[in-house]
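Protocol step 4 of 6.
Sequence for AB hydrolase-1 domain-containing protein (Pogonophryne albipinna) entered exactly as in the expression construct, tag removed. Do not edit the line below.
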Amino acid sequence: MKEWWVHVGLICIPLLAVYLHIPPPHLSPALQKWHSAGEVFHFRGREIFYRDSSGALGSSDVIILLHGFPTSSFDWNKIWEPLTQRFHRVIALDFLGFGFSDKPRPHKYSIFEQANVVEALAAHLGLSHQRVNVMSHDYGDTVALELLYRSDQNRTGHLTFNSLCLSNGGLFPETHYPRLLQRLLKDSSFLAPVLTRLTNYMLFQKGIGDVFGPYTQPTDAEFWDMWTGLRHNDGNLVLDSILQYINQRLKHRERWVGALTSTFVPLHLIYGPLDPVNPHPQFIRLYQKLVQRSTITILDEHISHYPQLEDPTGFLNAYFNFIHSF
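Step 5 output, structure tokens:
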């Protein structure tokens, strides 16, 4: 039979995927330093990594940073020190399934659970009754909107917003374009276990590089740190479960977009316009139409999906202008 090799391949590839278990890379000095500066707290028996840095004297302001997919709190490393010069406390966590936090499997990851994690961290740090500033990116934007809904709409939230700054998140399903691998993983229960094991550094580097601008690409060391954070605790094996957040955004659009459009919390968007995931001008036009109480900063035209890493100075200037405006 001429197609024998197809059948052999269909048998061998899943078997290879099952047995392919390459050890995760060692932490770089930069990642080791980030990890050593952090702590863990326990959420329903799971360890959640976080950092809590004391900063500006004479200020009581607190900021909580919510990272994106598929990376970690280390996404904030380029703006961490400047934030500590402005805020009394700067706090960031790795969501469940990300970075240095536990990555249980099988597990039904959800935006709702991640919001619970953030509320639990706030309680752990004694912030349940304090107004906090929230800065979020990508996946973290949706977690922030669930927290905002709880605070504004049904009054069950345990986080009180002083302000919210969003950046390059898929806020609207109709203007969100996930990458090919993301679409395959979120919708294919049969292929997902194979694809997650076959995900390697080269595929990861290509995927991440595609959502950075051509002039703002990560260095080799930065790519490797992102990959290391993903591979820590076999995080590649939970990608398909975490990616259900894309389906959750569609299912709960009214809840989360409704919270965004109706809030009176000071709101700002920092946007890298070269973003292929939330492309310009479709995304920004819809945001301006629906979220009329928000102010907006559009960064330089070569900035893409990770503005806090691609243009940390422009990102910080935009944020400080916002935070000093109210």
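Step 6, annotate. The chain has a mean pLDDT of 93.
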